[in-house]
User: Which sequence fits this backbone?
């Protein structure tokens, strides 16, 4: 499903040449693929958790970005430029687009509740989502927006703190 998100973004069919390009020379897809690999490693008895930690660490070093092992991310994740991204403990829905330098996580290490990002959400470059907030399905954050409270479905938010300025059609 992640590969289909990249094909949609490039408006092309996921043919063999496209797939090879994604696997071999597309850092964003490689970053997402690494996260999916980590999810699969956990199922291996005895060594799975250690192997996942090792792959997570190497991914952080190579990409200068992190997806926490406690993050729950559904299919269709699209990250064109993975650098500077930090996704902490959170729940992220289907078909979410995350641009460079985005931060999603809790406000403190003691906070138990996590941010929830709905389906079909776009997080613009440098956006920050902190604390127990919910981004409704189809919402979009502008570049460098800082979200500290819930956003309704289909909303477009910008600014610091983020405020709703428009709605997206179809949501």
Assistant:
């Amino acid at each position: 499903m992640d590969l289909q998100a990249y094909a949609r973004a490039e408006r092309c069919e996921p043919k063999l040449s496209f797939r090879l390009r994604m696997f071999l020379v597309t850092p964003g897809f490689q970053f997402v693929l690494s996260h999916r690999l980590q999810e699969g490693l956990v199922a291996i008895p005895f060594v799975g958790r250690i192997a996942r930690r090792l792959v997570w660490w190497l991914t952080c070093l190579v990409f200068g970005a992190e997806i926490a092992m406690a993050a729950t991310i559904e299919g269709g994740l699209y990250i064109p430029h993975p650098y500077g991204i930090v996704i902490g403990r959170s729940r992220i829905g289907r078909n979410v687009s995350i641009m460079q330098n985005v931060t999603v996580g809790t406000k403190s290490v003691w906070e138990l509740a996590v941010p929830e990002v709905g389906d079909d959400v776009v997080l613009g470059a440098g956006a920050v989502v902190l604390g127990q907030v919910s981004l409704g399905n189809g919402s979009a954050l502008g570049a460098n927006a800082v979200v500290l409270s819930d956003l309704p479905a289909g909303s477009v938010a910008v600014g610091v703190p983020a405020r709703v300025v428009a709605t997206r059609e179809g949501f």
User: Anything to note?
Assistant: Residues 48-63 form the longest helix (16 residues). The chain has a mean pLDDT of 94. The helical segments are 2-10, 16-25, 27-41, 48-63. The first strand starts at residue 66 and ends at 67.
